[in-house]
Amino acid sequence: MRRIKTKKGIKNKQMLYQRIVAVIIVCLSFFIHVKIQKPVHYPRSKNVQVVGYIWQDGIGQDDWWSNVIQSEDELLILVSSQIWIPQERLTVELAEVENGYFVDARCQVDLQNMLNDCRAAGLSPLICSAYRTQEEQGTLFWRQVDRCAVGGRTQDEAYWEAAKSVAIPGTSEHQLGLAVDIVDVSYQRLNDGQENTPAQRWLMANCWRYGFILRYPREKEGITGYYYEPWHYRYVGRDVAAQIYLRGMCLEEYLAESQEEQTE
Question: Which residues are catalytic?
Fold first, then answer.
C-alpha cells in the first residue's frame, strides 16, 4: 500500500532540514572564530619563542610612539596591542619561581629576592600570574571581550575595550616571561584598591631595586594604552629600572628618549 505524504510530514521534514542547516552554520561560525581570530597555538613548554617588533598596520601618524624601535637589549622588548610577538625569533628559558609559576630565567633570582625581602619586612606578597602560553592568554582575553560586550557595544568595540585591560593574545608581556602580577594576601582583587595594600606600597617603592618597574602607571594610560594596573610588574634590569623609576617614566618613554639620544 502506497504511503501518502501529509502536509504535517512534509513540514516536519522541512523543520529537520532547517535545524541541520542551523547547526552547520553555528559550527562553521565557531570554527572561523577560533581559527581566524586565534590562529597561533603555543604548546606549554619551558622554551618559548618570543621577541617584540613594531606592528606598522593600524598605527596612526599622530601616535607619538609609532617611531619607537626595539632596543638591542632583550630585556627591553616592547609589546602592546600594536606590537606583536613573533614566535620564531628568540628562545627564552623559563625557571620556576614559586607556587608553580614560571618566569624568564634571567629575572627569577631578582624576583625571588624581591618577594623574600618584602616578606622580611613583615608583608605578604603573592604571585597570582606570571608566564602564560598563547592559549592561556587567549582564554583570558576572549573572556574579557564577552564581559565588555554589554550596553549595546558592537563586537569590535568590545574587542578594543577588552584590549585596554587584558592583552590581545600574542601581545602580552606575560608571554615574554618578563611580567608578573603580584597582590597582597590580604587583598587579592585586581583593581585600584590594590595600590593601598601594605605589600603593594612596598613593591611600588622598592621594585626598581630588583630590576622591576610598575609597567602600567595611572598617569601613563594614554601612552601605554592600558588601564592603570597597580599589580603588574615588568623586569627590565636594575640599571634601566632605576632610571625609569627615578625619572617617573614608563617603558615607552624610556625607549623613545634612548632612541633620540642615539640619533643626536
Answer: 229
